[in-house]
Write a structure and sequence with these properties.
single chain, about 475 residues, alpha/beta, Rossmann fold, Helicase, Ruva Protein, domain 3, 5-stranded parallel beta sheet, about 45% helix, elongated, transcription regulation, DNA-binding, ATP binding, phosphoprotein, transcription
Length: about 475
């Protein structure tokens, strides 16, 4: 199916501006016959007045109008509604003006006389690659989901469930691939809850070494271990009254899973080295990109903890499953990045935006943001061209790894190099790494690395042939 047809909003509202009454009537008839809701006016001033009452989904305007012309109308609309798509109708004498206008952000132009099918296709493209009014302007009732930009039905269903569960204190397990926005959803649930005025504290369980994670979560008292020179408040206590978000909960080591379960059962936390527990009032939200059911079957994740955390489960769709959001997100990110870099960029060329909308996104929303940041930083013209987007899309996926993913990859590569250097001798590897043998064995198991495979009499190296 044509992308424009697939992403077009239903019953889109088109504002048509032309001072030729016959052409205005003809355009209105053709658009209504194609299923659009049409408002027709004959001056730029009348168009601005109608937009003030109700923002349309698209403006179709002649360039030559009495009083303020179509280009001046576009400039005014651009200030009020940056994402509102405008298509210009132009006679041959005004083509240079229309071409110049596309560099300022006009979606496109058609020369008179124009083909009806070409006009309808241009309108479909513009509507598919532009946000709907509610998505651009927002609403007072949407403050809780600030930062989550979407018009996808899949995301709407997830957000509806999230708002319902926010009213309770039930544990929520958010599933989704890396970069799909799990922390954003957790923050939204917190803002929609009765705990909104209290702290929201997030911790990535896969990014902190096991030896430090316990102290970070539960705190410690002075003298609890070497280097503990003062009492340290843990994240559970820091989040008291509010919400604690445990990201990548599937990476939490088993010993800490036991202690976390006890905290959830007793509603109290005992800092490392302390003799008494401290009562806490914290709601737990957690997230993972791992298959926890498989981890439970392998004994790597506790079943009793899983059911404590997964009272309600929410699953975020991948970006590929919500393609209608890609143009919306790309424009949203671009507006923020233009401010950040102080660039004079008005938007994407239509073909550049379509390239983003049809590209694969293994890194999800995080990868899309990084691509938009790259093209914004490198842009030298008011409209980002297709060539710049194509260049950014060729960047290898490892450039958009999350911190946790990059850390895991470095850790595995480091261990492989150690084992190669020591010919699979764990004692020598531990000495070089300044770690004890037990800790090194645990790390090797974590990455499925078998020391024997690195010895001279072995054939395989981490699943591959020795080179």
């Amino acid at each position: 199916m044509n992308l424009a047809v697939m992403l077009q909003p239903p019953s889109a509202h088109v504002l048509v501006v032309d001072d030729d009454p016959d052409l205005l009537r003809l355009l209105s008839m053709r658009l209504r016959a194609s299923g659009y809701r049409v408002t027709a006016v004959d001056t730029a001033e009348a168009a601005l007045a109608r937009v003030a009452v109700e923002r349309p989904d698209l403006v179709l305007s002649d360039v030559r109008l009495p009083g303020r012309d179509g280009l001046a109308l576009f400039d005014e609309l651009r200030q009020q509604h940056p994402a509102l798509p405008v298509i210009l109708l132009t006679a041959h004498g005004t083509i240079p003006d229309a071409v110049a206008a596309t560099a300022r952000g006009v979606f496109g132009y058609l020369t008179k006389p124009f083909d009806s099918q070409a006009l309808l296709e241009k309108i479909r493209q513009a509507l598919a690659l532009s946000p709907a009014p509610a998505e651009e302007d927002g609403g007072d009732g949407d403050a809780w989901r600030a930062g989550i930009v979407s018009r996808s039905k899949r995301m709407a269903e997830v957000l509806e469930e999230a708002k319902l569960v926010a009213a309770s204190d039930a544990g929520v397990l958010i599933r989704g691939e890396s970069g799909s926005g799990k922390e954003l959803l957790a923050r939204a649930i917190h803002r929609a809850s009765a705990r909104a005025a209290k702290p929201f504290v997030a911790v990535n369980c896969g990014a902190i070494p096991e030896s430090l994670l316990e102290s970070e979560l539960f705190g410690h008292v002075k003298g609890a271990f070497t280097g503990a020179t003062a009492n340290h408040l843990g994240l559970f206590q820091a989040a008291d009254g509010g919400t604690l978000f445990l990201d990548e909960i599937g990476d939490m080591p088993l010993p800490l899973q036991v202690k976390l379960l006890r905290v959830l059962q007793e509603r109290a936390v005992r800092p490392v080295g302390a003799t008494a527990a401290v009562p806490i009032d914290v709601r737990i939200l957690s997230a993972t990109h791992r298959d926890l059911e498989a981890a439970m079957a392998e004994g790597a994740f506790r079943e009793d903890l899983f059911y404590r955390l997964n009272v309600v489960g929410l699953t975020l769709p991948t970006l590929d499953e919500r393609r209608e959001d890609i143009p919306l997100l790309a424009n949203h990110f671009l507006q923020a990045l233009v401010e950040k870099y102080g660039k004079k960029v008005n938007g994407f060329a239509p073909e550049a935006l379509e390239a983003l909308a049809t590209a694969p996104w293994p890194g999800n929303v995080r990868q899309l943001y990084n691509v938009v940041e790259q093209v914004c930083a490198l842009a030298t013209s008011p409209l980002i061209p297709l060539a710049l987007v194509q260049r950014a899309l060729r960047v290898r996926g490892n450039e958009v790894l999350s911190y946790a993913e990059a850390k895991l990859r470095f850790e595995r590569d480091y261990l492989v190099q150690l084992l190669k250097l020591t010919d699979g001798n764990v004692s020598d590897a531990a000495r070089l790494a300044d770690r004890n043998r037990t800790e090194l064995y645990r790390l090797l198991q974590k990455h499925d690395l078998v020391p024997a495979h690195f010895r001279g009499d072995g054939d395989d190296v981490a699943g591959g042939r020795r080179g």
